Amino acid sequence: MDLPMASGQFDRDAARRNDANYLNSLKDSPNTSYILVTARGEVAIKSDHVYGQAPHGGLTPPDLAHMEAEQLLELSHAQVAQLPFSPQEPYYLGKYGEKSYLALRVEAPSQQLEENRQYCFAPLRAVAGMLEPYQGELAAAAVALATWDKNTKFCERCGASLKLACAGWEKHCTACAHITYPRTDPAIIVAITDDAERLLLIHGATWQPGRYSVVAGFVEAGESLEAAVAREALEETGIKISQASYCSSQPWPFPRSLMFAFTARAGGQQEPKADMQEVGHAFWVSREEFTQLVLEGKVIVPGRASSGHALVRAWYGRELPQPR
């Protein structure tokens, strides 16, 4: 299963993150490109489309009507120097082909962009499925680092301030020298089907009306992925699964998740019952029923940037329908 932001196409070049001479040589090299991100999960793209804010809770916006290919904005050192705002210290992302990539975190670019329509900042959750695979992966790494950098200010051991190091991939305590690394929280997402090949859809209790996806949740301490799949299905919908199969994984830096996608089977004549805390509605749907509900606008599916979209599409067997 091919997922956005998970191509593995670029070289992270981790061995050179502490090579100060090499990193300095990159800054004004003609083979270096800079990309711009915010700690809110936005990336700068070469586009005049207007993208609204992404939904809360790490959800994916529904697909837009145009769904055209988008490109990351890649800047030279000279272009960075002319930006109408001050970026932070760059993060070294790695290499793709002959190019090296640095990421810059900007704080609040929206006002300055009113005067520059050559590019815009868009939620990565909205555009990841429209970027080239390597660009989606670069953007995911950059957003993950920017969010971690913004939110991690003090040492977890002694409370002293932290200093960015290792080209953005570490923070060192200024008092006790403890090293802090970017954190990733594992989560599962699972497409559950019954013996009639119906898919289990859920509506989150805090989601917008009509929005549906598949069961998902965080892995608990000391828990295996497979156990998390079974627990989340039972807790959220009352469904007991008989088997689970791993499909793929996807970074989801909103703010710091790694999604593990599964399929699972629920045997017998089980009827879902939403827990009414995390899930407000759960039901089985056939492919024919699903088609009609989406066409009528009664079910809004996750955008194609997400593993939820990929799991539903794999069950459906073709591209998902669009509302009329």
Automatic annotation (TrEMBL):
GO terms for biological process: NAD+ catabolic process; NADP+ catabolic process. Pfam families: NUDIX, NUDIX-like, Zn_ribbon_NUD. Gene3D superfamilies: 3.90.79.20, Nucleoside Triphosphate Pyrophosphohydrolase (3.90.79.10). Residues 182-307 form the Nudix hydrolase domain. Keywords: Hydrolase, Magnesium, Metal-binding, NAD. The keyword rRNA processing does not apply. One of its GO terms (cellular component) is cytosol. It catalyses: a 5'-end NAD(+)-phospho-ribonucleoside in mRNA + H2O = a 5'-end phospho-adenosine-phospho-ribonucleoside in mRNA + beta-nicotinamide D-ribonucleotide + 2 H(+). Its cofactor is Mg(2+); Zn(2+). It comes from the Bacteria. Its EC number is 3.6.1.22. This is NAD(+) diphosphatase. The lineage of its organism: Bacteria, Bacillati, Actinomycetota, Actinomycetes, Actinomycetales.
